[in-house]
Amino acid sequence: MVSGDGAAGLPPIAALRRDFIWGVSTSAFQIEGATHEDGRGLSIWDMRCQRGEISNRDTADIACDHYHRYPEDIALMQQLGLQAYRFSVAWPRVLPQGRGAANEAGLAFYDRLIDALLAAGIEPWLCLYHWDLPQALEDLGGWTARDCAGWFADYAALVASRYGDRVKRFATFNEPSIFTLFGYGFGGAAEGAAGMDKMHRAIHHVNLAHGAAVDAVRHHAPGSSIGAIHNYQACLPSTPADTQAAAICDAYWNRVFPDPQCLGSYPPLLQAAMEPYIQPGDLERIKRPVDWFGLNHYGPKYVGTDANSLLGFGFGANPPELPLTPIGWPIDANSFRDVLLTVAKTYALPIYVLENGLGGFDKPDETGAIVDDNRIDYLRSYIGALNAAVAAGADIRGYFVWSLLDNFEWDSGLGVRFGLTYIDYPTLKRTPKSSFHWYKNVIETARKIRP
Protein backbone atom coordinates (compact mmCIF):
# COMPACT_ATOMS: atom_id res chain seq x y z
CA MET A 1 0.00 0.00 0.00
CA VAL A 2 1.37 3.38 -0.97
CA SER A 3 1.98 5.84 1.85
CA GLY A 4 1.08 9.50 1.74
CA ASP A 5 4.61 10.78 2.37
CA GLY A 6 6.60 8.82 4.93
CA ALA A 7 9.40 11.37 5.07
CA ALA A 8 6.96 14.02 6.26
CA GLY A 9 5.37 11.66 8.78
CA LEU A 10 2.04 11.51 7.00
CA PRO A 11 -0.34 8.56 7.29
CA PRO A 12 -1.18 6.03 4.57
CA ILE A 13 -4.03 7.53 2.57
CA ALA A 14 -3.77 5.95 -0.88
CA ALA A 15 -6.81 3.68 -0.40
CA LEU A 16 -9.17 6.61 0.16
CA ARG A 17 -11.75 7.67 -2.40
CA ARG A 18 -11.11 10.39 -4.93
CA ASP A 19 -14.00 12.40 -3.44
CA PHE A 20 -13.00 11.75 0.20
CA ILE A 21 -13.99 14.68 2.43
CA TRP A 22 -11.58 16.21 4.96
CA GLY A 23 -13.07 18.36 7.69
CA VAL A 24 -13.20 19.44 11.31
CA SER A 25 -16.00 19.42 13.87
CA THR A 26 -17.18 21.66 16.71
CA SER A 27 -20.35 22.13 18.75
CA ALA A 28 -22.35 25.23 19.58
CA PHE A 29 -22.21 25.15 23.37
CA GLN A 30 -18.50 24.39 23.41
CA ILE A 31 -17.35 27.31 21.27
CA GLU A 32 -20.02 29.97 20.70
CA GLY A 33 -20.18 31.79 24.02
CA ALA A 34 -22.65 34.72 23.97
CA THR A 35 -24.92 32.66 26.19
CA HIS A 36 -26.90 35.70 27.33
CA GLU A 37 -26.97 37.65 24.06
CA ASP A 38 -29.58 38.27 21.36
CA GLY A 39 -32.44 36.47 23.04
CA ARG A 40 -30.81 33.08 23.54
CA GLY A 41 -32.51 30.89 26.13
CA LEU A 42 -30.81 28.79 28.79
CA SER A 43 -29.75 25.20 28.19
CA ILE A 44 -29.26 22.37 30.65
CA TRP A 45 -25.50 22.96 30.41
CA ASP A 46 -25.86 26.64 31.26
CA MET A 47 -27.59 25.51 34.44
CA ARG A 48 -24.82 23.04 35.25
CA CYS A 49 -22.31 25.85 34.87
CA GLN A 50 -24.39 28.14 37.09
CA ARG A 51 -24.53 25.45 39.77
CA GLY A 52 -20.72 25.22 39.78
CA GLU A 53 -20.64 21.59 38.66
CA ILE A 54 -17.83 22.07 36.12
CA SER A 55 -14.13 21.62 36.84
CA ASN A 56 -12.55 24.82 38.14
CA ARG A 57 -16.09 26.29 38.12
CA ASP A 58 -15.57 27.13 34.45
CA THR A 59 -18.48 28.25 32.29
CA ALA A 60 -19.15 28.51 28.57
CA ASP A 61 -20.42 32.08 28.84
CA ILE A 62 -17.57 33.17 26.57
CA ALA A 63 -15.89 29.87 25.56
CA CYS A 64 -14.11 30.66 22.26
CA ASP A 65 -16.42 33.60 21.45
CA HIS A 66 -17.11 32.00 18.09
CA TYR A 67 -20.43 33.85 18.03
CA HIS A 68 -18.50 37.05 17.37
CA ARG A 69 -15.26 35.65 15.93
CA TYR A 70 -16.61 33.16 13.40
CA PRO A 71 -14.99 35.02 10.43
CA GLU A 72 -11.58 34.49 12.03
CA ASP A 73 -12.38 30.82 12.59
CA ILE A 74 -13.51 30.36 9.00
CA ALA A 75 -10.22 31.89 7.90
CA LEU A 76 -8.48 29.16 9.90
CA MET A 77 -10.57 26.56 8.08
CA GLN A 78 -9.52 28.05 4.76
CA GLN A 79 -5.90 27.95 5.84
CA LEU A 80 -6.28 24.25 6.61
CA GLY A 81 -7.75 23.62 3.16
CA LEU A 82 -10.89 21.97 4.56
CA GLN A 83 -13.72 20.83 2.37
CA ALA A 84 -16.33 20.66 5.14
CA TYR A 85 -17.14 21.95 8.61
CA ARG A 86 -19.46 20.16 10.98
CA PHE A 87 -21.10 22.43 13.54
CA SER A 88 -24.26 22.33 15.63
CA VAL A 89 -27.15 24.72 16.03
CA ALA A 90 -27.93 25.73 19.61
CA TRP A 91 -31.58 24.78 20.10
CA PRO A 92 -32.07 27.46 22.82
CA ARG A 93 -30.54 30.13 20.59
CA VAL A 94 -33.18 29.71 17.89
CA LEU A 95 -36.05 28.58 20.16
CA PRO A 96 -35.38 30.08 23.60
CA GLN A 97 -38.18 28.04 25.20
CA GLY A 98 -37.48 24.99 23.09
CA ARG A 99 -40.78 25.42 21.27
CA GLY A 100 -43.16 28.23 20.36
CA ALA A 101 -41.84 31.56 19.12
CA ALA A 102 -38.56 31.48 17.19
CA ASN A 103 -35.76 33.94 17.92
CA GLU A 104 -34.90 35.81 14.73
CA ALA A 105 -31.59 37.10 16.07
CA GLY A 106 -30.45 33.55 16.78
CA LEU A 107 -31.58 32.29 13.40
CA ALA A 108 -29.75 35.19 11.73
CA PHE A 109 -26.46 34.17 13.36
CA TYR A 110 -26.51 30.81 11.59
CA ASP A 111 -27.49 32.56 8.34
CA ARG A 112 -24.29 34.59 8.64
CA LEU A 113 -22.19 31.56 9.53
CA ILE A 114 -23.53 29.40 6.70
CA ASP A 115 -23.20 32.15 4.11
CA ALA A 116 -19.62 32.84 5.19
CA LEU A 117 -18.73 29.14 4.99
CA LEU A 118 -20.14 28.86 1.48
CA ALA A 119 -18.33 32.02 0.41
CA ALA A 120 -15.10 30.42 1.66
CA GLY A 121 -15.75 27.24 -0.35
CA ILE A 122 -16.44 25.11 2.75
CA GLU A 123 -19.48 22.84 2.91
CA PRO A 124 -21.60 23.27 6.07
CA TRP A 125 -22.60 20.07 7.86
CA LEU A 126 -25.34 20.93 10.35
CA CYS A 127 -26.00 18.87 13.46
CA LEU A 128 -29.34 19.58 15.11
CA TYR A 129 -28.48 18.45 18.62
CA HIS A 130 -25.18 18.41 20.47
CA TRP A 131 -26.39 18.07 24.07
CA ASP A 132 -27.73 21.60 24.76
CA LEU A 133 -31.37 20.84 25.55
CA PRO A 134 -33.33 24.00 26.36
CA GLN A 135 -33.84 24.18 30.12
CA ALA A 136 -37.50 25.06 29.54
CA LEU A 137 -37.99 21.60 28.04
CA GLU A 138 -35.98 19.90 30.76
CA ASP A 139 -38.43 21.46 33.20
CA LEU A 140 -41.19 19.59 31.35
CA GLY A 141 -39.39 16.26 31.63
CA GLY A 142 -36.83 16.62 28.84
CA TRP A 143 -36.01 13.39 27.04
CA THR A 144 -37.97 11.36 29.60
CA ALA A 145 -41.17 12.93 28.24
CA ARG A 146 -42.51 11.32 25.07
CA ASP A 147 -43.66 14.74 23.87
CA CYS A 148 -40.03 15.71 23.39
CA ALA A 149 -39.98 13.77 20.11
CA GLY A 150 -42.57 16.17 18.73
CA TRP A 151 -40.78 19.22 20.12
CA PHE A 152 -37.59 18.08 18.42
CA ALA A 153 -39.39 17.46 15.13
CA ASP A 154 -40.77 21.00 15.19
CA TYR A 155 -37.29 22.37 15.90
CA ALA A 156 -35.86 20.28 13.03
CA ALA A 157 -38.55 21.63 10.70
CA LEU A 158 -37.66 25.21 11.65
CA VAL A 159 -33.95 24.68 11.02
CA ALA A 160 -34.40 22.73 7.80
CA SER A 161 -36.86 25.23 6.34
CA ARG A 162 -34.57 28.15 7.22
CA TYR A 163 -31.25 26.71 6.00
CA GLY A 164 -32.16 23.88 3.64
CA ASP A 165 -31.66 26.08 0.59
CA ARG A 166 -27.93 26.22 1.47
CA VAL A 167 -27.22 23.30 3.80
CA LYS A 168 -27.39 19.85 2.21
CA ARG A 169 -25.95 17.72 5.05
CA PHE A 170 -27.96 17.29 8.22
CA ALA A 171 -27.33 15.15 11.30
CA THR A 172 -30.11 14.60 13.81
CA PHE A 173 -28.13 13.83 16.99
CA ASN A 174 -24.54 13.77 18.13
CA GLU A 175 -23.68 10.86 20.42
CA PRO A 176 -27.09 10.04 21.89
CA SER A 177 -25.60 7.10 23.78
CA ILE A 178 -23.30 9.43 25.70
CA PHE A 179 -25.86 11.92 26.94
CA THR A 180 -28.32 9.17 27.87
CA LEU A 181 -25.81 6.74 29.40
CA PHE A 182 -23.95 9.38 31.36
CA GLY A 183 -26.98 11.56 31.98
CA TYR A 184 -29.20 8.79 33.33
CA GLY A 185 -27.44 5.44 33.47
CA PHE A 186 -24.27 5.84 35.50
CA GLY A 187 -26.05 6.42 38.77
CA GLY A 188 -25.61 4.41 41.92
CA ALA A 189 -27.44 1.15 42.48
CA ALA A 190 -29.58 2.92 45.10
CA GLU A 191 -31.43 4.72 42.27
CA GLY A 192 -32.74 1.32 41.24
CA ALA A 193 -35.82 1.05 39.06
CA ALA A 194 -36.46 4.80 38.91
CA GLY A 195 -33.08 5.48 37.34
CA MET A 196 -33.41 2.64 34.86
CA ASP A 197 -36.90 3.83 33.93
CA LYS A 198 -35.65 7.34 33.18
CA MET A 199 -32.77 6.06 31.08
CA HIS A 200 -34.88 3.66 29.03
CA ARG A 201 -37.56 6.28 28.49
CA ALA A 202 -34.95 8.79 27.34
CA ILE A 203 -33.35 6.28 24.98
CA HIS A 204 -36.64 5.45 23.31
CA HIS A 205 -37.82 9.04 23.07
CA VAL A 206 -34.50 10.17 21.53
CA ASN A 207 -34.89 7.40 18.98
CA LEU A 208 -38.43 8.56 18.23
CA ALA A 209 -37.14 12.14 17.94
CA HIS A 210 -34.51 11.01 15.45
CA GLY A 211 -37.10 9.37 13.21
CA ALA A 212 -39.42 12.36 13.40
CA ALA A 213 -36.58 14.75 12.61
CA VAL A 214 -35.50 12.72 9.58
CA ASP A 215 -39.02 13.05 8.20
CA ALA A 216 -39.13 16.77 9.00
CA VAL A 217 -35.81 17.48 7.30
CA ARG A 218 -36.78 15.40 4.26
CA HIS A 219 -39.96 17.44 3.94
CA HIS A 220 -38.48 20.90 4.47
CA ALA A 221 -35.07 20.34 2.80
CA PRO A 222 -35.80 17.91 -0.04
CA GLY A 223 -32.72 16.36 -1.56
CA SER A 224 -30.63 16.76 1.56
CA SER A 225 -28.31 14.03 2.87
CA ILE A 226 -29.24 12.92 6.40
CA GLY A 227 -27.61 10.81 9.08
CA ALA A 228 -27.00 10.52 12.81
CA ILE A 229 -23.68 10.62 14.64
CA HIS A 230 -22.86 7.76 16.99
CA ASN A 231 -20.05 7.44 19.52
CA TYR A 232 -18.86 3.89 18.80
CA GLN A 233 -15.97 2.35 20.73
CA ALA A 234 -14.99 -1.26 21.31
CA CYS A 235 -16.26 -2.30 24.76
CA LEU A 236 -13.84 -4.95 25.98
CA PRO A 237 -13.73 -6.95 29.24
CA SER A 238 -11.00 -5.95 31.67
CA THR A 239 -10.82 -9.56 32.85
CA PRO A 240 -12.45 -12.80 31.60
CA ALA A 241 -14.99 -12.43 34.42
CA ASP A 242 -16.18 -9.14 32.88
CA THR A 243 -17.38 -10.57 29.55
CA GLN A 244 -21.08 -10.11 30.30
CA ALA A 245 -20.51 -6.60 31.65
CA ALA A 246 -18.69 -5.67 28.44
CA ALA A 247 -21.53 -7.07 26.33
CA ILE A 248 -24.09 -5.00 28.24
CA CYS A 249 -21.89 -1.89 27.88
CA ASP A 250 -21.62 -2.53 24.13
CA ALA A 251 -25.40 -2.76 23.85
CA TYR A 252 -25.98 0.54 25.68
CA TRP A 253 -22.95 2.43 24.36
CA ASN A 254 -22.76 1.31 20.75
CA ARG A 255 -25.98 -0.32 19.61
CA VAL A 256 -29.08 1.00 21.39
CA PHE A 257 -29.41 3.86 18.91
CA PRO A 258 -28.08 2.68 15.52
CA ASP A 259 -29.77 -0.73 15.78
CA PRO A 260 -33.35 0.58 15.93
CA GLN A 261 -32.55 3.52 13.65
CA CYS A 262 -30.90 1.42 10.94
CA LEU A 263 -32.06 -2.16 11.56
CA GLY A 264 -35.48 -1.61 13.10
CA SER A 265 -34.97 -3.40 16.42
CA TYR A 266 -33.27 -2.94 19.77
CA PRO A 267 -30.21 -5.06 20.61
CA PRO A 268 -31.27 -8.54 21.84
CA LEU A 269 -29.74 -7.94 25.29
CA LEU A 270 -31.96 -4.85 25.74
CA GLN A 271 -35.20 -5.90 24.06
CA ALA A 272 -36.94 -6.89 27.28
CA ALA A 273 -35.84 -3.70 29.04
CA MET A 274 -37.09 -1.49 26.20
CA GLU A 275 -40.38 -3.30 25.60
CA PRO A 276 -42.47 -1.36 28.17
CA TYR A 277 -41.79 1.93 26.35
CA ILE A 278 -42.55 0.81 22.80
CA GLN A 279 -45.98 1.67 21.43
CA PRO A 280 -47.45 0.20 18.24
CA GLY A 281 -45.71 1.62 15.18
CA ASP A 282 -42.78 3.10 17.14
CA LEU A 283 -40.05 1.03 15.50
CA GLU A 284 -41.34 2.06 12.07
CA ARG A 285 -41.29 5.70 13.21
CA ILE A 286 -37.67 5.29 14.34
CA LYS A 287 -36.33 3.39 11.32
CA ARG A 288 -36.49 6.10 8.71
CA PRO A 289 -34.24 6.01 5.64
CA VAL A 290 -30.87 7.68 6.25
CA ASP A 291 -28.01 8.29 3.86
CA TRP A 292 -24.92 7.74 6.01
CA PHE A 293 -23.57 6.67 9.38
CA GLY A 294 -21.69 9.30 11.38
CA LEU A 295 -19.06 7.73 13.63
CA ASN A 296 -17.16 9.35 16.50
CA HIS A 297 -14.24 7.34 17.87
CA TYR A 298 -11.40 7.95 20.30
CA GLY A 299 -10.28 4.62 21.75
CA PRO A 300 -11.51 1.33 23.24
CA LYS A 301 -13.30 1.12 26.58
CA TYR A 302 -12.27 -1.55 29.05
CA VAL A 303 -15.23 -2.61 31.13
CA GLY A 304 -15.42 -4.10 34.60
CA THR A 305 -18.26 -5.58 36.62
CA ASP A 306 -19.49 -3.08 39.21
CA ALA A 307 -22.24 -4.11 41.63
CA ASN A 308 -22.57 -0.50 42.83
CA SER A 309 -23.39 0.80 39.36
CA LEU A 310 -26.99 1.14 38.26
CA LEU A 311 -26.15 -0.89 35.14
CA GLY A 312 -23.82 -3.39 36.79
CA PHE A 313 -20.74 -2.26 34.92
CA GLY A 314 -18.16 0.51 34.99
CA PHE A 315 -14.79 1.26 33.54
CA GLY A 316 -12.11 -1.29 34.36
CA ALA A 317 -8.32 -1.18 34.19
CA ASN A 318 -6.67 -0.52 30.85
CA PRO A 319 -4.10 -3.07 29.67
CA PRO A 320 -0.68 -1.88 30.88
CA GLU A 321 0.84 -2.23 27.43
CA LEU A 322 -1.55 0.26 25.83
CA PRO A 323 -0.37 3.88 25.61
CA LEU A 324 -2.73 6.52 26.99
CA THR A 325 -3.57 10.07 25.96
CA PRO A 326 -2.71 12.82 28.46
CA ILE A 327 -6.28 12.57 29.82
CA GLY A 328 -5.99 8.81 30.25
CA TRP A 329 -7.85 7.43 27.24
CA PRO A 330 -6.38 4.29 25.60
CA ILE A 331 -4.70 4.69 22.21
CA ASP A 332 -5.28 1.73 19.90
CA ALA A 333 -5.53 2.46 16.19
CA ASN A 334 -6.10 -1.23 15.41
CA SER A 335 -9.27 -1.05 17.49
CA PHE A 336 -10.39 1.90 15.34
CA ARG A 337 -9.84 -0.16 12.18
CA ASP A 338 -11.85 -3.04 13.64
CA VAL A 339 -14.72 -0.74 14.71
CA LEU A 340 -14.91 0.75 11.23
CA LEU A 341 -15.13 -2.72 9.70
CA THR A 342 -17.78 -3.80 12.22
CA VAL A 343 -19.93 -0.72 11.57
CA ALA A 344 -19.56 -1.11 7.81
CA LYS A 345 -20.66 -4.75 7.95
CA THR A 346 -23.47 -4.27 10.48
CA TYR A 347 -25.21 -1.20 9.05
CA ALA A 348 -24.21 -1.24 5.37
CA LEU A 349 -24.15 2.56 5.12
CA PRO A 350 -21.45 4.95 3.92
CA ILE A 351 -19.42 6.04 6.96
CA TYR A 352 -18.18 9.52 7.80
CA VAL A 353 -15.82 9.72 10.77
CA LEU A 354 -17.08 12.95 12.32
CA GLU A 355 -14.97 13.07 15.47
CA ASN A 356 -11.49 11.75 16.19
CA GLY A 357 -8.79 13.46 18.18
CA LEU A 358 -6.61 13.64 21.28
CA GLY A 359 -7.26 15.56 24.47
CA GLY A 360 -4.33 17.04 26.33
CA PHE A 361 -3.02 19.94 28.36
CA ASP A 362 -1.18 21.85 25.63
CA LYS A 363 0.82 24.95 26.50
CA PRO A 364 2.96 27.35 24.46
CA ASP A 365 6.71 26.82 24.69
CA GLU A 366 9.18 29.62 25.36
CA THR A 367 8.84 30.82 21.76
CA GLY A 368 5.04 30.86 21.89
CA ALA A 369 4.69 27.79 19.66
CA ILE A 370 2.40 24.92 20.63
CA VAL A 371 4.20 21.70 19.73
CA ASP A 372 1.74 18.84 20.09
CA ASP A 373 3.63 15.92 18.61
CA ASN A 374 1.54 13.48 20.65
CA ARG A 375 -1.58 14.64 18.81
CA ILE A 376 0.18 14.30 15.47
CA ASP A 377 1.26 10.75 16.34
CA TYR A 378 -2.30 9.90 17.34
CA LEU A 379 -3.91 11.36 14.22
CA ARG A 380 -1.30 9.74 11.98
CA SER A 381 -1.96 6.28 13.39
CA TYR A 382 -5.74 6.64 13.35
CA ILE A 383 -5.93 7.98 9.81
CA GLY A 384 -3.64 5.13 8.81
CA ALA A 385 -6.07 2.69 10.46
CA LEU A 386 -8.94 4.31 8.56
CA ASN A 387 -7.00 3.79 5.33
CA ALA A 388 -6.51 0.12 6.27
CA ALA A 389 -10.25 -0.28 6.89
CA VAL A 390 -10.99 1.18 3.46
CA ALA A 391 -8.47 -1.19 1.88
CA ALA A 392 -10.31 -4.05 3.63
CA GLY A 393 -13.61 -3.00 2.10
CA ALA A 394 -15.23 -0.42 4.40
CA ASP A 395 -17.09 2.37 2.59
CA ILE A 396 -15.63 5.41 4.40
CA ARG A 397 -16.14 8.75 2.72
CA GLY A 398 -14.82 11.40 5.09
CA TYR A 399 -12.77 12.22 8.19
CA PHE A 400 -13.28 15.17 10.54
CA VAL A 401 -10.85 16.01 13.33
CA TRP A 402 -12.19 16.94 16.75
CA SER A 403 -11.66 19.80 16.98
CA LEU A 404 -10.84 22.99 15.12
CA LEU A 405 -10.42 24.89 18.40
CA ASP A 406 -9.66 24.22 22.01
CA ASN A 407 -13.02 24.61 23.69
CA PHE A 408 -15.26 24.09 26.70
CA GLU A 409 -14.81 20.37 27.27
CA TRP A 410 -18.00 19.65 29.21
CA ASP A 411 -17.33 18.51 32.80
CA SER A 412 -13.61 19.21 32.33
CA GLY A 413 -14.29 22.87 31.54
CA LEU A 414 -11.54 24.81 29.80
CA GLY A 415 -8.68 22.69 31.14
CA VAL A 416 -8.66 19.89 28.54
CA ARG A 417 -7.68 20.82 25.00
CA PHE A 418 -8.62 18.91 21.83
CA GLY A 419 -8.03 21.67 19.28
CA LEU A 420 -5.79 21.97 16.26
CA THR A 421 -5.82 25.64 17.26
CA TYR A 422 -4.76 26.88 20.70
CA ILE A 423 -7.12 29.30 22.44
CA ASP A 424 -5.59 31.69 24.97
CA TYR A 425 -8.78 32.15 26.96
CA PRO A 426 -7.91 35.49 28.63
CA THR A 427 -7.28 37.13 25.23
CA LEU A 428 -9.11 34.66 22.92
CA LYS A 429 -6.10 34.74 20.61
CA ARG A 430 -6.03 31.81 18.17
CA THR A 431 -2.66 30.12 17.52
CA PRO A 432 -2.40 27.12 15.17
CA LYS A 433 -0.58 24.20 16.78
CA SER A 434 1.93 21.90 15.11
CA SER A 435 -0.94 19.48 14.45
CA PHE A 436 -2.78 22.21 12.51
CA HIS A 437 0.08 22.49 10.03
CA TRP A 438 0.46 18.70 9.89
CA TYR A 439 -3.24 18.20 9.09
CA LYS A 440 -3.03 20.90 6.43
CA ASN A 441 -0.19 18.87 4.86
CA VAL A 442 -2.28 15.68 4.98
CA ILE A 443 -5.11 17.38 3.09
CA GLU A 444 -2.73 18.88 0.51
CA THR A 445 -1.07 15.50 -0.01
CA ALA A 446 -4.43 13.73 -0.38
CA ARG A 447 -5.39 16.15 -3.13
CA LYS A 448 -2.15 15.46 -4.96
CA ILE A 449 -2.67 11.70 -4.77
CA ARG A 450 -6.37 11.92 -5.63
CA PRO A 451 -6.82 15.19 -7.53
Q: How would you summarize what this structure contains?
A:
With 451 residues, the chain is of the alpha/beta class. Helices cover 41% and strands 15% of the residues. The protein is globular, with a radius of gyration of 21 Å.
Helix and strand arrangement:
Elements: E1 21-25, H1 28-31, H2 44-50, H3 66-80, E2 84-88, H4 91-94, H5 104-119, E3 123-129, H6 135-138, H7 148-163, E4 169-174, H8 176-185, H9 192-220, E5 225-231, E6 235-237, H10 243-255, H11 258-263, H12 271-274, H13 282-286, E7 292-296, E8 301-305, E9 313-315, H14 333-347, E10 351-355, H15 373-391, E11 396-402, E12 421-424, E13 429-432, H16 434-449
Parallel strand pairs: 1-2, 1-11, 2-3, 3-4, 4-5, 5-7, 6-8, 7-10, 10-11
Antiparallel strand pairs: 8-9, 12-13
Task: Describe the protein in words.
- There is one protein chain.
- The protein has 451 residues and is an alpha/beta fold.
- The chain is built from 16 helices and 13 strands.
- The chain has helices at residues 28-31, 44-50, 66-80, 91-94, 104-119, 135-138, 148-163, 176-185, 192-220, 243-255, 258-263, 271-274, 282-286, 333-347, 373-391, 434-449, and strands at residues 21-25, 84-88, 123-129, 169-174, 225-231, 235-237, 292-296, 301-305, 313-315, 351-355, 396-402, 421-424, 429-432.
- The strands form three sheets. The chain has an eight-stranded parallel barrel with strand order 1-2-3-4-5-7-10-11, surrounded by six helices. Strands 6-8-9 form a three-stranded mixed sheet, covered by helices on one side. It has a two-stranded antiparallel sheet with strand order 12-13.
- Helix 7 (148-163) runs parallel beside helix 9, helix 8 (176-185) runs antiparallel to helix 9 (192-220) and helix 14 runs parallel beside helix 15.
